[in-house]
Write a structure and sequence with these properties.
There is one protein chain. The protein is of the alpha+beta class. Helices cover 37% and strands 13% of the residues. The protein has a single domain (18-97), classed as Herpes Virus-1.
Length: 98
């Protein structure tokens, strides 16, 4: 025997969307998956990106405008120290060749 019973169901659906932590713009899933600041880890949209550092890996290093501005003095010091390391390495190699 087949008995038919009718029931009424109410379904609640939750939709989560990702938004830029700075300006609040809605971000698409594809875009937001790779646009997170390397320093503060906040989600950032195209408008709020301060700098994109191209890497040889799958994803580039992306910095928000806020963190990129804070890093200005640090990047200058790091560039100087990298040049100093190169100079010391060259000096070491020259000593070894003598």
């Amino acid at each position: 025997m087949i008995k038919e019973t009718k029931t009424e169901k109410t379904i609640t659906e939750t939709i989560c969307t990702r938004h830029c932590d700075y300006c609040g713009e809605k971000m698409t899933t594809q875009y937001s998956s790779t646009h997170r600041c390397e320093c503060c880890k906040k989600d950032i949209c195209k408008k709020c990106v301060g700098y994109i550092e191209v890497t040889s890996g799958d994803y580039d290093n992306i910095y928000c405008k806020h963190c990129w501005e804070i890093g200005k003095d640090y990047r200058t010091k790091m560039d100087f120290l990298e040049k100093e390391i190169d100079r010391l390495r060259d000096e070491w190699i020259m000593k070894c060749k003598e």
